[in-house]
Structure formats: structure tokens, C-alpha cells
């Protein structure tokens, strides 16, 4: 292959790796919600992280598209669980029980 083709392949590999890392970071940030989301949320979280870290993949490791798909799917599922919990009226950890009233926002005193 030509030098340009190798350069394109290298850039694509770096871009997909960066995308997988960004999704993994977002998934790890969602970890604080796992206690409230139950066993299904924990399975999705830890399953996606294990699939990303372990060397057993559907596609070889230089191609991170399957890892990106699993991480994105786990994030979408966790988002779905959060929306279900909010719709049921149950607060998430670290959030107030009732949403703030926009008419009662405190303004700084001058």
C-alpha cells in the first residue's frame, strides 16, 4: 500500500480509539447513578466496560467500532433507565426531590 493509504488508516484508527475513550469516560462518569438504577444498570455498565477492556472482540482491536457500539448502547440504556426513574417521580442520588421553581430563582443582591 502507498504511504497515503497507511496515513489514512492510521488517522481512522486514532479517531475511533479516541471515540471509544470518550464514550468510556462518559460511561464511567455515569457510575454514580448505578445504585439508583438497579441490577440492570449495573450489568449494562460493567458489561460494557469489560467488553471494551478484554481482548475478546467481534472485530480485531485496531478497529474499535464494536467497542464504540457497545459503549454507546450502554449509555443509551442507562439514559433510558434514568428517564424511567424520573418519570416515576423517584429522585436520583445527588438531585433534589423536587425541581427548582423557575419563578423563585434567587438573584444576587447588589
UniProtKB/TrEMBL annotation:
Ranges of residues in domain DUF1232: 42-72
CC terms in the record's Gene Ontology section: endomembrane system
Pfam families in UniProt: DUF1232 (PF06803)
Biased composition (Pro residues): 93-102
Chain positions covered by the region annotation Disordered: 88-110
Membrane protein topology class: Multi-pass membrane protein
Main location (coarse class): membrane
InterPro entries found in the cross-reference section: DUF1232
Coiled-coil residue spans: none
Subcellular location: Endomembrane system
Highest rank taxon of the organism: Bacteria
Membrane-spanning segments: 6-25, 32-51, 63-82
Keyword tags: Membrane, Transmembrane, Transmembrane helix
Name assigned to this protein: DUF1232 domain-containing protein
Originating organism: Micromonospora deserti
Amino acid at each position: 500500500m502507498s504511504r497515503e493509504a497507511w496515513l489514512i488508516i492510521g488517522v481512522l484508527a486514532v479517531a475511533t480509539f479516541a471515540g471509544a475513550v470518550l464514550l468510556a469516560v462518559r460511561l464511567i462518569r455515569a457510575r454514580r447513578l448505578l445504585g439508583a438504577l438497579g441490577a440492570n444498570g449495573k450489568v449494562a455498565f460493567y458489561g460494557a466496560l469489560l467488553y471494551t477492556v478484554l481482548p475478546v472482540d467481534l472485530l480485531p482491536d485496531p478497529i474499535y467500532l464494536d467497542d464504540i457500539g457497545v459503549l454507546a448502547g450502554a449509555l443509551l440504556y442507562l439514559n433510558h433507565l434514568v428517564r424511567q426513574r424520573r418519570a416515576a417521580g423517584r429522585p436520583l442520588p445527588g438531585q433534589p426531590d423536587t425541581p427548582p421553581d423557575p419563578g423563585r430563582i434567587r438573584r444576587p443582591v447588589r
